[in-house]
Amino acid sequence: MWISIKQARQPGSIGQQAQVRGWVRTRRDSKGGFSFIEVNDGSCLGNLQIIADGSLANYQSEITALSVGSSVVITGEIKASAGQGQSTEMVASEVRITGIASATDYPLQKKQHTFEKLREWAHLRPRTNTFGAVARVRNRLSFATHQFFQNDGFLYVHTPIITASDCEGAGQMFRVTTLPIDKLPMVNGKVDMSQDFFGKASYLTVSGQLEGETYATALGKIYTFGPTFRAENSHTSRHLSEFWMIEPEMAFFEIADNMTLAERYLKYMIHDVLTHCAEDMEFFEKRIQPGVTAALQLVLDTPFTRLSYTEAVEILTKCDEKFEYPVSWGIDLQAEHERYITEKHVQGPVVLYNYPKEIKSFYMRLNDDDRTVAAMDVLVPGVGEIIGGSQREERLDVLTERMLASGLKAEDYWWYLDLRRFGTVPHAGFGLGLERMVQYTTGMTNIRDVIPFPRAPGSCDF
Ligand code: ATP
Ligand code: MN
Q1: What CATH topology corresponds to 126-170+206-449?
Q2: What's the pLDDT tens digit per position in 14-27?
Q3: What is the predicted pLDDT for the residue at 109?
Q4: Are 137 and 279 in contact (CB under 8 A)?
Q5: Range(s) for CATH 2.40.50.140 in the chain?
Q6: pTM of the full predicted structure?
Q7: Which residues contact 231 (CB under 8 A, 6 or more apart)?
Q8: Which residues line ligand 1 (CB under 6 A)?
Q9: Which among 21, 114, 119, 263 has the fewest CB atoms less than 10 Å away?
């Protein structure tokens, strides 16, 4: 019976005849005329140790030449093991080689490679301990996301990836076109967009929020979970050009409900990963970021601190820290400011809310003070902003006015305004970047190492 190595490593498998299939991590030949082969199949971090005896038919011809990275199908009996870090091992009755990886060419030899080097081998890096563990945690966070929202009565909605509403920032959007770039059709000195595929300009989505609102104001509680594209030229360890975002949107929700939901969702995911990815988390703790599990556990046990923007500015102007960008009321907080608040001042997750209206989007609900909007960001140590959200402006007149002030044309958003014209309700939502969540839970420092094939300015390989 073919079983996973995860299963084979369980003490309950002892005594079973079984087959495992995977890739060789190491081979060691003993003087006693047998070999130890460590095999991994990605089902878990740990390898299964195979004992291949010299009496096997292909022992001399194949097994003693078995190289790292080769694929194998091994049949045998699972026995108790006295070896360190394993409770079982397999005594092979057959070792079948599916594909050899040449010992001279295979890049992932035993020596440690830097994460930078491994990015050049993005097609092979999931075969390493680190990237296997990242993939399993990422999978679990995605699964937990669906579980959390489904258990809470949210509907999963698919918003478009190609969009014609260049909503939040045209400068940050990737254009989608089939026009020949070396021979653009022109009218009156301008590109004739009517000849493009959709008959007008179109882009890759930067957020599914506006479309999400249309479903929230019909179905109550919805979430989207899909790829998001931003053409911003940020070369940081927290920005990608293509990333995955989860965006819940809730009718009859106000900003405080939104904060409570964000906190519950983050805690649910953390609890889930600590429970179901214990072995991988132990690896991140030992090899990537000592202290990461204790920090996550602390998050579970502590209510998130809530601070208004105004309070945060006060803290930042009164503290002794030297910032590159000076702080005063009205500025957009920089990463250094956010990190000071969450890492030094609070030392845990913090929800910042009520930002100046000038630095936030037109759709965020204007507060009674007429200066701030009901925006909320969740900041966490090590990563900074992990969630951005707000209560949305549900009053038609206020929204129209805010759009005009932001230089937007009301007729371009007629359908968005209709939601306020017909049965408007207070509603709210937020966006969580999946990769930032993977970074936070694993302690991986660069966002390019928590997505299978990173896309960033100047870099789109594979
Ligand atoms: P930042 O200030 O960090 O650039 P933002 O304010 O532009 O982020 P939002 O528009 O609020 O981001 O998007 C919601 C969430 O999506 C963010 O809180 C973050 O987790 C994630 N996110 C935003 N931009 C990126 C990006 N370029 N790469 C990866 N994740 C991102
Ligand atoms: Mn934001």
Answers
A1: BirA Bifunctional Protein; domain 2 (3.30.930)
A2: 999 999 999 999 99
A3: 84
A4: no
A5: 5-99
A6: 0.96
A7: 171, 172, 173, 174, 241
A8: 230, 239-240, 243, 245, 385-388, 431-433, 435-436
A9: 114
pLDDT score at 169: 56
What phi, psi does 208 have (nearest 5°)?
-95, 10
Delimiting residues of CATH 3.30.930.10 domain(s) in the chain: 126-170+206-449
Contact 58, 94 (CB under 8 A): no
> 289: which 2 tokens?
């970021």
- Of the chain, the end-to-end C-alpha distance in Å amounts to 36
Nearest Cα to Cα of residue 205 among 225, 230, 177, 179 = 230
Distance CA 393, CA 415 (A): 15
* CATH superfamily, with its number, for domain 5-99: Nucleic acid-binding proteins (2.40.50.140)
> Which one of the ligands is nearest to 450 CA?
1
Length of the chain, please?
462
For residue 378, the Cα-to-chain-centroid distance in whole angstroms is 15
3-state helix, strand, coil in the chain (%, to 5): 35, 25, 40
pLDDT one-digit tens code per residue, 110-133? 788 999 999 999 999 999 999 999
- Ligand 1 nearest atom to the CA of residue 388, by list position: 11
**3 state SS for 268-331:** HHHHHHHHHCHHHHHHHHHHHCCCHHHHHHHHHHCCCEEEEHHHHHHHHHHCCCCCCCCCCCCC
- Residue 170 is predicted with a pLDDT of 54
Helix, strand or coil for residue 6? helix
Q: Whose CA is nearest to atom 30 of ligand 1?
A: 433
Residue among 203, 183, 207 nearest 195 (CA) = 183
What is the CA(240)–ligand 1 centre distance, in A? Answer: 9
Confidence class of residue 85 from pLDDT cuts 50, 70 and 90? Answer: confident
Within 10 A of 21 (CB to CB), how many other CB atoms are there? 17
Please report, for residues 108, 129, 186, 193, 372, the alpha-carbon distance to residue 117 in angstroms, rounded to integers and kept in the order given.
Answer: 11, 15, 45, 42, 46
